[in-house]
Write a structure and sequence with these properties.
Number of helices of chain B: 15
Number of strands of chain B: 4
Oligomer: heterotrimer
Largest sheet of chain A: 6 strands, mixed
Shape of chain A: globular
Number of helices of chain A: 9
CATH architecture of the largest domain in chain A: 3-Layer(aba) Sandwich
CATH superfamily of the largest domain in chain A: P-loop containing nucleotide triphosphate hydrolases
Chains: A alpha/beta (about 270), B mainly alpha (about 400), C mainly alpha (about 300)
Structural class of chain B: mainly alpha
Order of helices and strands of chain B: HHEEEEHHHHHHHHHHHHH
Number of domains of chain B: 2
Helix content of chain A: 25-40%
Distance between the termini of chain B: 30 Å
Largest sheet of chain B: 4 strands, antiparallel
Strand order of the largest sheet of chain A: 6-7-8-3-9-10
Helix content of chain B: over 70%
CATH architecture of the largest domain in chain B: Orthogonal Bundle
CATH topology of the largest domain in chain B: MetI-like fold
Radius of gyration of chain B: 28 Å
Strand content of chain B: under 5%
């Protein structure tokens, strides 16, 4: 159950279970004015190409820190992180991933399409190709027609979709998402979950998704990594054998409830509920 | 709110919240009385708003009737309507104009109660109109209300100063200032070029550019920032205009010395504000650029400078005022032969106060215009900022 | 992999000395400010060498000495330098402050006193006016729409430039002595106070205002219990700006009317008679006055904040 891809349907369509992200003995200690803080402790994790992996755990357990380390936004103080068979920094310089934050972080002086083009401009992509890619990305998240609107004219959910489109415009093989739907209401969240799953199904993306919502993690993922409270460790890795094509109704499916139960058990064992 | 009012008073047809028929009637009577009261003496005979010495001017009567109609309609319309504010204020303006006309004709105000009644009526009407307009939304009323207020002040100024024959030596009425500007326009133009175009504008441009450049240069050094910012705040507290005599002794008399004073005055506000603006970008946005492997200059150009614009505009608006003050006041020192500051001091000593007031009026207009231009530029460049969208 | 006990040792907490050092160096302000000041003083000495060049050459020509050391010594100790060296200026200022009888025209203390008196009156009046205006603007809608734009516009008119005419007009009306300067100080200081207090009086949360509403609090109760305490923290930065402006205003008024006493008068005299040390002294004393005044207000602010229990 741990460390392998079980069940049918998800890895097979995209070929071998090639490892895209690997952490070995990864540790991270922050130096703060109040002393050292052990955020990550000896993490071993392998993420296969084309999988949808959720990191779940209580607040402060280091799941965001782990994601940021993969993104080379933090440097580990121990162990190793490998992305696409190279270091995290090389992956970042090669723009191998798109990162979606908790808040949309759109530039308010740019309209929607110019926001989506931001990473393409930084990369120096030629102008015509920028337009093509940006429009495609907006189509993928279902926001065609909103190109000329400004961020403040959109709802929170739509802004977050623009943020996802922006991450997608790079056409990266990896998508890193840090509680992207946390600030939204449940109905919008459900909607966006369906959108995201649909996006994952249609492309070859590897997604690493940080969340603290158990139903969201179970709904979206092919694999769920449960983390312990600080210092963050991997408590358990739970593979999901739910079918790849899912609708919201699956949340009442007994298999769904079983997986959710297992996640909750793992959290309890790790004293997350203490 | 309005429904209850119309049922409570219950006297037949009326607009929501509007005055009753009785109210409008009373208002009209008041206006009529005010129109007939003697407001002063004109050519030896008692004069009222609509005529003097027994004759009645048709034009004045027409204007009065129109005013009464506007007032009635405005009152009937009720507070929620913007039109009511405009109409009532308009009525006040029309009546006020009748009074002003008489004063310009040479009305002698020494004996009249009527004058004060009419003036009170005019003020009351315009103030009520303003009050109703103030409750409206929209850009037009935003401009209209302060204009009406300013207009009121200028009106009372002109009316009382001309009407009571206040000596123009102290403060002339607005029309005299206007006449003086036109009469002295060639001197004013020379002074304008010297003080505004040379001293103020060049100093402003150099000082702001220098402040901006230094801010960008020390952006990467937190050490230098922590060293320069407290000094910058201290310098802003100092009376920089006091450096004028020193700079004059170095650069000699003329606009370069004044320009230098302006450069010193405008440098630090621009530096401090640009730095604050550059630091205002959030960690999330900076991480975003880092995830794109964006270089320092790409991040600076695409993210941090646009974010800094609102702060920079604060400094620009402040510096515009400082530049004007610095340019003019630095001419109080030394012995210049041209310039607005020089003109104010020298003409005041010769008691040619009309030239002084004309110069002051030009300075006031330049100050307001530059502030207005910067505000418009700010709106265009930082349209996205919450403060510009009315949410700030 | 799962539930493994942490094997990595926890790093030792850095020593107190190291923490203090990193706080001072990485975050403190004293060292950077001192460094910049030292650099500025060095540049000042260097600039003196350059600016005083002509006069220095004449001096050296007279003594016949040569060499850099002689040149530097001559420049830095000239009698009538174009740019006095820091130590010369410090000496002169010390003499002006302490070496003269307090009532004499050559005493800095005398002139500072004259300037302070009118500044303070004007500043206090301006602050009071600003507060009253702010209260009016916040509570009366018409005033807000009509006054605010004019309050802002009033500042685009360079009152400092109007100082001379101001004093003349007031003189004609029989207002002389300390009052014209005080009035100018009032005009200059009311604006920042008005803007800040309007912002402060409006700062209470809608939730807090609704709370007062549920208590059926009267208008003045809402003002004294909620709005005023919320506005006080906004007042102090405006006071700092206001006092600096008032000082400048008083000085400019003195300059433009060729007053006999006061820092502005001193500045003017120095300028007319070519008394370099008086000019520089006046400028530095005025600056010192402004900085001390602001420091006092900052102290007052800290006391008030502490009496309210810390953070605003």
């Amino acid at each position: 159950m741990t460390g392998s891809l079980a069940g049918g349907g998800f890895a097979g369509a995209h070929g071998a279970s090639e490892t895209v992200i690997e952490a070995e003995g990864l540790s991270l200690t922050f130096q703060t004015p109040d002393g050292p803080v052990n955020a990550l402790d000896n993490i071993d994790l392998r993420i296969a190409k084309g999988s949808f992996v959720s990191l779940i755990g209580p607040s402060g357990c280091g799941k965001t820190t782990l994601l940021r380390t993969i993104a080379d936004l933090e440097r580990p103080t121990g162990g190793r992180i490998t992305v696409n068979n190279g270091t995290a920094e090389e992956a970042r310089r090669a723009r191998a991933y798109g990162y979606v934050f908790q808040a949309p972080a759109l530039f308010p002086w740019r309209n929607v399409i110019r926001n989506v083009k931001t990473p393409l401009e930084v990369m120096g992509v030629p102008v015509r190709e920028r337009n093509v890619r940006a429009r495609k990305a907006l189509e993928v998240v279902g926001l065609e027609g909103f190109e000329r609107k400004f961020p403040w004219q959109l709802s929170g959910g739509m802004q977050q979709r623009v943020s996802i489109a922006r991450a997608m415009s790079l056409e990266p093989p990896i998508l890193l998402m840090d509680e992207p739907f946390g600030a939204l209401d449940e109905i919008t969240r459900d909607n966006l979950n369906v959108h995201l799953l649909d996006l994952w199904n249609r492309t070859d993306l590897t997604v690493v998704f940080v969340t603290h919502s158990i139903p969201e993690a179970v709904f979206l993922s092919s694999r769920i990594v449960v983390m312990s409270p600080r210092p963050g460790r991997v408590l358990r890795v739970i593979d999901s054998d739910l079918p790849r094509e899912r609708s919201l109704d699956i949340r009442e499916n007994p298999k769904f409830l079983d997986i959710a139960h297992r996640v909750r058990e793992a959290l309890r064992e790790g004293h997350s509920y203490d | 709110m309005t429904a209850s009012m119309s049922t409570a008073t219950g006297s037949g047809r009326q607009a929501p919240g509007g005055a009753t028929f009785g109210g409008v009637f009373i208002a009209s009577v008041v206006v009529l009385i005010a129109a007939l009261l003697p407001v002063g003496e004109l050519g030896g005979a008692d004069a009222s708003l609509i005529g003097s010495g027994g004759t009645i001017a048709l034009a004045a009567v027409t204007q009065l009737v129109l005013a009464m109609a506007a007032l009635s309609l405005g009152l009937a319309l009720g507070p929620p309507s913007a039109g009511s504010g405009v109409l009532i204020a308009g009525a006040g303006i029309a009546i006020g104009h009748l009074l002003l006309d008489k004063v310009w004709d040479g009305l002698d105000l020494s004996v009249s109660v009527g004058f004060w009644v009419v003036l009170a009526l005019v003020l009351c009407l315009v103030w009520t109109g303003m009050g109703r307009l103030a409750r409206q939304r929209g850009n037009a009323t935003r401009v209209l209300v302060p204009l009406l207020f300013g207009g009121l002040i200028v009106y009372v100024w002109e009316l009382t100063f001309v009407g009571f024959g206040v000596s123009p030596v102290i403060i002339p009425p607005p029309t005299d200032i206007l006449a003086s500007i036109i009469a002295n326009r060639s001197i004013l133009w020379l002074d304008f070029q010297h003080t505004i175009v040379h001293s103020a504008l060049i100093g402003f441009a150099v000082g702001c550019a220098a402040g901006f450049l230094v801010a960008v240069l020390i952006d990467r050094s937190s050490f230098l920032q922590r060293g320069l910012l407290p000094i910058g705040s201290a310098v802003s507290a100092m009376p920089i205009v006091g450096t004028a005599p020193i700079l004059i002794s170095w650069f000699g008399q003329g606009w370069p010395a004044s320009s230098a004073v302006v450069v010193i005055m405008t440098f630090f506000p621009m530096l401090v504000n640009t730095l604050a603006g550059l630091q205002s970008t959030g960690a999330m946005e900076r991480d975003l650029m880092r995830s794109y492997a964006a270089s320092y200059s790409q991040t600076l150009w695409r993210l941090r400078l646009p974010m800094a614009l609102p702060f920079m505009f604060n400094a620009l608006k402040l510096n515009a005022t400082l530049a004007l003050i610095g340019a003019i006041v630095s001419e109080f020192f030394g012995s210049p032969i041209v310039g607005m500051g020089f003109r104010i001091v020298s003409e005041q000593q010769r008691l040619n106060l009309d030239v002084v007031w004309a110069t002051i009026a030009v300075a006031a207009v330049v100050g307001s215009l530059s502030y207005g231009v910067l505000t418009i530029a700010e709106r265009v460049a930082t349209f996205w900022h919450p403060s510009q969208r009315g949410e700030g | 992999m799962t539930d493994a006990v942490s094997a990595a040792p926890v790093p030792r907490r850095p020593s107190a000395v190291r923490r203090a050092w990193s706080a001072y160096w990485a975050r403190g302000r004293t060292i950077p400010v001192l460094t910049v000041l030292v650099v500025l003083i060095v540049l000042w000495y260097a600039a003196a060498l350059w600016v005083n060049a002509d006069r220095a050459e004449r001096l050296i020509g007279q003594t016949g000495e040569e060499g850099i050391v002689a040149y530097a010594t001559a420049v830095w100790n000239m009698e009538r330098p174009a740019l006095p060296a820091p130590h010369q200026l410090a000496e002169a200022m010390w003499d002006q402050a302490t070496g003269q009888a307090i009532t004499s025209n050559r005493s800095a203390v005398h002139h500072i006193g004259v300037t302070i008196w009118s500044t303070l009156i004007g500043f206090l009046a301006g602050t009071a006016l600003g507060i009253v205006l702010a209260i009016g603007i916040v509570h009366v809608r018409t005033l807000e729409r009509s006054l605010m734009p004019w309050v802002i516009a009033s500042q685009t008119i360079p009152i400092l430039a109007l100082a001379p005419i101001f004093v003349v007009v007031l003189g004609q009306l029989g207002v002389t002595g300390v009052w014209p300067k005080a009035l100018i100080a009032t005009y200059l200081s009311f604006f920042p106070v008005t803007i800040a207090m309007v912002k402060g009086l409006r700062s209470p949360d809608i939730l807090q205002r609704d709370l007062m509403h549920t208590y059926s609090a009267s208008g003045s109760q809402v003002f004294w219990m909620l709005r005023w305490p919320s506005a006080v923290p906004f007042l102090f930065p405006a006071l700092k700006v206001g006092i600096a402006l008032s000082i400048v205003g008083a000085i400019v008024a003195e300059v433009s009317t060729a007053a006999q006493a006061g820092l502005g008068a001193w500045l003017l005299q120095g300028s007319y008679h070519g008394l370099v040390f008086r000019m520089w002294g006046a400028l530095f004393f005025a600056s010192a006055l402004a900085i001390v005044a602001i420091a006092l207000i900052a102290l007052l602010e800290r006391l008030v904040v502490r009496s309210r229990g810390g953070a605003a």
